[in-house]
Amino acid sequence: MEKETLRIEGFSDGVFAIAVTLLVLDLHFPEENSIQNGNDLLVFLKNQWPAFLAFILSFFSIFIMWVNHHKIFKQIYSRNSAIMFANGLILFLVSTVSYPTALLARYFDGEASSVVVALYTGIFVLINLAYNLLWFLATRNRKLLRPGITDTAIKKIHNNYLYGLPIYVIALILSFWIPAVSLMIILGLWIFWALSSGKIEMGLDKHYSDPLK
To answer: Which residue, 73, 87, 164, 207, is the most exposed by fewest CB within 10 angstroms?
Structure first.
């Protein structure tokens, strides 16, 4: 079966690459003549820690989303309008990550921390919903999927995305009271996905039947 999603994947890779690149714009140099010695530079860098935190969190979040996007399209062989628009929704949301990242970098260490963390976690709730929507639309018609994929493999992928949703929602709720814990929850979820992604993919490869039999 010929894979029909190569153009979708290529365009998506470009959007992910641009989204990652935009994040670095919030890492600023000190103003001219404001640094007189090494101690001044260390103080400046220390005061910039929210920007570094936001950059690291968002970079690896987009990277993990790209990895998951690659894996989900490893299972999708054909496309229709619904899949293309659902993928477009994912790309739209990914391209907006740089904005809440900028807010987090500027206002996390202040009175508005709960609001900026809520906006930051909220965008990932929407992204998770978009991934669930894409996989739901893809699995409505088995002819769109990789030949030989079994119900077990489909369910494993579905559960992998669905289980993340309540965790993101919990992080969003906690952001209004303890924003630092909210970010720690999101970071922990990303670390879990990064460590378990290889095992999940190996497990999926065991659940394919021979379509020629």
So the answer is: 207
